Amino acid sequence: MIRLAALTALTMLAFAANSLLNREALADGQTGPAVFALIRVVSGALCLWVLVRLRGGPSRPILRPWGVVSLALYVLGFSFAYVTLPAGVGALILFGGVQVTMFAGAVLGGERVAWPRWAGAAVAFAGLVWLLWPGAQAAPPVAGALLMLAAALGWGVYSLLGRGVPDPLAATASNFVWAVPLAVLAYAVLPDAASARGALLAVVSGAVTSGLGYALWYAILPRLTATLAAVAQLSVPVIATAGGIALLGEELNARFLIATLLVLGGIGLSLLRPPQRRIGSSGS
C-alpha cells in the first residue's frame, strides 16, 4: 500500500510538472509555444512507442482520428496558453475544465447522473466563472484562459473517448505518434524558435513527465478505485500552484485561492455517493 501511494504521488508530481516545465520554458521569451509543443509530442511519441514495443505491443500505431485531434488540441492549447498564464492558474483552469467537459459528455451520452455530481459540477463551474470573470481584478489574461479551456476540452474529450479502451498505453502511444503531423502543421503556420534550455525542458515534458508519467499512471490505475484515482488528481493544481510559487516566483491572490477551493470542492462533492435506499424499507 505504501508503494502504491508513493507511485501515485510520483505520477501526480509528473502531471503537475508539465505545467511548470511549459511555463518555465516560455517565460524567458526565447522559446515559443509551437516548437515546445512539437518537441513535446515527438519526445512523448518516441518514449511511449518504445515502451509499447518493449512490452510486445502492436507493431504499428493505430489511427483513431478523434483521439488524435483531441490530443493535439490539448497539447497545443496547453502550450500556447502558458505564454501568459501562471502555472497554477493554468493547471486549475485545465483541471476544472476537464471535469466539466466530462460531466457534459456523461449527460449528453445519456448516463444517469446522481445529484452529488450535478451539484459538484455546478460548484466547480462557479469556481471557473469566478476565476475567469472578465474585467475583474486579478483575472487571468483572456486569451490564455480561452486557450487553456480549449486544452481542457481536448483532454476531456480524449478521456471520454479512452474509456473502455483495452490497452490505454498503446492507444495513447498511437495517438501521440499520429499527433506529430498536426504539431508540425501548427509549427509551420506559427513558426518560432527554441533555446537549448527550452528544448531540453520540452524533451523532459514529452518523454518523462508525459510519456513515463502516463505509462506509470496506466500501470497503477487498475489498483486504484475510481474514487481514489479521482481524488488523487485533485492534488495536481495544488502541486502546480506550490511549484509555481516556490520555483517560478508566482504569486497567490485571494481570487485564485477562492476559485481553487470552489473547483476542487466541487469536484470532491461530485465524488460523493448518494445514500442507497434499502430494498424493502418503508418509504413515505
From TrEMBL:
Gene Ontology CC terms, in alphabetical order: membrane
Domain (EamA): residue spans on this chain: 143-271
Keywords: Membrane, Signal, Transmembrane, Transmembrane helix
TM region positions: 37-54, 66-83, 89-108, 115-133, 139-161, 168-190, 196-221, 228-248, 254-272
Signal peptide location: 1-16
Protein name, UniProt field: Threonine/homoserine efflux transporter RhtA
Major subcellular location class: membrane
Lipid bilayer topology: Multi-pass membrane protein
Organism from which the protein derives: Lutimaribacter pacificus
InterPro entries recorded: AA-Vitamin_Transporters (IPR050638), EamA_dom (IPR000620), EmrE-like (IPR037185)
Compartments in which it is found: Membrane
Superkingdom assignment: Bacteria
